[in-house]
DNA sequence: CTTAAAACCTAGTATTCCGATAGGGTAAAG
DNA sequence: CTTTACCCTATCGGAATACTAGGTTTTAAG
């Protein structure tokens, strides 16, 4: 299951991407338009800023904006930032690899074999989709 | 993330599939061989039996066995039984569809658009893999 | 017929995670 | 120097996960 955090994050990003380039978008604007709790959204956008996807400007007239053109923002990065690993099992994760403690031989493991395929297919989809593709 | 329930379930099924056709396999055998808690595994195999993937025989010399040849057991069925919906969002689920209450227009939703693709790719992988492919 | 072995079933529990909320702190326009 | 809007930490209830406990029923074997 996709967490609401990720879901809201993607919605917020596409909302920002739909504006004219360089426009400042405020939390309140997104929150109202997309039906997302203001405070919750705040923490999500903060995460996206820290990961280098969004920039922010404080003070009156401030807000959030994309740091890169939307066609350069890959969904893999967005998902990894908000949701964490894309793989469904740590032992097939590229960025968050962890050995299973119950499994002596990874190459002989049926779950491993299956989940590698799922991961590869999912990765392909997410890599081929940028923010621009979703707008 | 794949739950341990599903992970253990797949491991147990492949263990059974590796035996000669029609062999009774006991919980304890699988539990020891695959490092899975006996009691937890018990509840998992029960679920698989109730869903019609496994058969069981009680009493001495009893155990679990596959109801169909392993190449007819699709991973979609196994995952749906143990993990639930394959889709990452209810609004793109084929078997467990549910409308998002925050989203007025599904066709305009970026999350929807993306997750449809992920679902289709995952489904393809899981449909093309049977138990026999994992053994 | 008895007993042991095995699945079956119900219930409970400890822990973890999620979604959200609270409440202020800090910086920059105007 | 006040308002606006982002920044940060902490907390909390509810749901889901991953087991655990203990008893019941069925079957085969002695």
From TrEMBL, chains A, B:
Keyword Acetylation listed: no
GO function terms (MF aspect): DNA binding; DNA-binding transcription factor activity
Stretch forming the signal peptide: none
GO cellular component: cytosol
InterPro entries assigned: TR_Rrf2-type_CS, Tscrpt_reg_Rrf2, WH-like_DNA-bd_sf, WH_DNA-bd_sf
Keywords: DNA-binding
Keyword DNA-binding: yes
SUPFAM superfamilies according to UniProt: Winged helix' DNA-binding domain
Gene3D superfamilies: Winged helix-like DNA-binding domain superfamily/Winged helix DNA-binding domain (1.10.10.10)
Pfam families attached to this UniProt entry: Rrf2
Protein name as catalogued: BadM/Rrf2 family transcriptional regulator
Phylogenetic lineage: Bacteria, Pseudomonadati, Bacteroidota, Flavobacteriia, Flavobacteriales
